[in-house]
Model the fold of this input.
Amino acid sequence: MVSPNASALESLAQWFPLVNPILVVPSFYITVKYLREVTPYFRKASVMADIGWELQSGFLGAENGFLNSDEDRSSPVMTNGPDTRSLPLLFCHLTRNYKCDEQYSLELHSPDRLHSLMIKCPSEADITGWYNALHSTLDRLMQSALQHANKMLGDVLDKATIHHIGWLKLKVDQGKEEWEPQFCAVTDHDMILFQEVPWTKEAWANPLVFYPLLATRIVNSTHKGSLGGSEPITMTMRCGTQEGVCTSVFRHDTQRDLATWVKVLVQGAHNAVQRQKEVACYCEWRGVEAKLVLHHEDGFTLLSTHDAAGGRGRVLWTQPFHKLVMSSDDGARLIWLRFDGDMEVELDLKTNPKPFVFILHTFLSAKVHQQSLS
Done:
């Protein structure tokens, strides 16, 4: 607090003469705050300015209006201010114990994986409540985006329908606990992975990797573990390729997420069999060039290719699926099939047999599932 004295006022009058005399009352107050007390205000404004992210443009951008439901229109619109920030949740990755392993915390990562927000609560009950609320909202947003994507991507995905989308964490090193988030989608034919959200048609046409559902199966999933627990909830997936068997391990945050992805992938593989009906591969049997056909109803059929003349070819032998006793391969080009009645067949596929083996197992699984429903 500062008070002027008379001499000071006289000095000011000499430097700034007045045309009309005024009465100066020598009593006023100036309130001064120490800088250390206002520093938090500047720091708070700076921190709030750094929070948040912008969504990219593209056909999946919120500006296209597919999120403009009656519920969205009735919700209050939050605006950014000096002490508030509004964050778009569309396509965000919600997780726990990925970058931040602090207790009672969760993580919200932006769709481009360049920004993140860590939220801490005083108790496990509080953080679980926040996680469940955000999870439900993100699920609703994902479903709206999924429906819109199916309207726009028919020409890109060869008229295939997308059945599920979301974030999974892929184990990048089988010997270490290193995980990398992947945006995943399951279509009629494949499970496809992206490093970030594919906002455009061009991005959807160039996935990071894809797994054909017919040649893919779930071989293991954990039944233990919980949200925020120390034991990871994982799903192991194997795919038969021309290079051999590809094994991928995915991590989930909850048992509910694990069950959803397993169901989507298993049902997707069975539905792919119903749509495909049959697959065929060229091979050699007893020195005869032939074609082996797998049919979802008829089982195995081996056809000769020499006298096909554009037709189906002469039937060399047939066997239904339920007669198959065992199958094995050498991992290089040979496969052995043993059927009930001591019939054993050796086929030279002249390529890696793993894709055929995995497709065979998918056809068998779909057949068993179909019989269980009847």
Notes: Confidence is low (pLDDT under 50) at residues 1-34. Residues 124-152 form the longest helix (29 residues). Helices lie at 6-15, 35-50, 70-74, 124-152, 201-204, 255-276, 354-373.
